[in-house]
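Posting for a labmate who doesn't have an account.
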Amino acid sequence: MDLDEMFGEGWCVTLAAHPLAETLRLMGVAAPVPGLGSVSEAADVLRGPQGEGALVLGRELPGGWTLAVEFESGIGFDDEVLRALAVGGRTAFSAYRDPDTKTATIAHGGVILGRLELSGGYFDHFDGPSGGVDTTHPVIGSLTAVGFDASGACEPSGEAADTDEPEGGLVLAVRVLSGIALTAADFEGPWAGGVSEVAS
């Protein structure tokens, strides 16, 4: 799975433990259009009637999760949006890729837990809450158990050291956090979505 080939250099992938319509609403899509096809077909359908702005597409995945994708925007990566997606004891995860960034943010219970450098397999201790990562939190513990490094040494081990970057790190983290093994087929649609009212 090569998201750069699918979406270009700029993309944002968000997973949230919310129903589809609620996830899109929290990401600023007030009235999502259902029954869209592939990503390119969805973009063609939505661009005309909904105008310019950040396009957010979503689809349901097993276990009550929703997968949302964006291209050339990062609404799901915004801390405020991610905290909203993680309220009520839920976990939310958003990975953002631009030419200079390959980072994921993890939130749980309305709190940002840390940022994971997908290109290196380690937690960023300089951009996390209070400058560090709470390694005692069970969500962080589930990620360090597969080798993502939260020690500050920036040295992944185990499965995290054996992944292709950055998509392999994304797939591994999503599997740990949600139990879902993302594949290219998960990005084929059908989608629902629209233009977000949240500034990207």
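Reply:
Got it, the structure tokens are right above this. The beta strands are 11-16, 33-36, 55-61, 65-71, 91-98, 101-108, 111-117, 122-123, 191-195.
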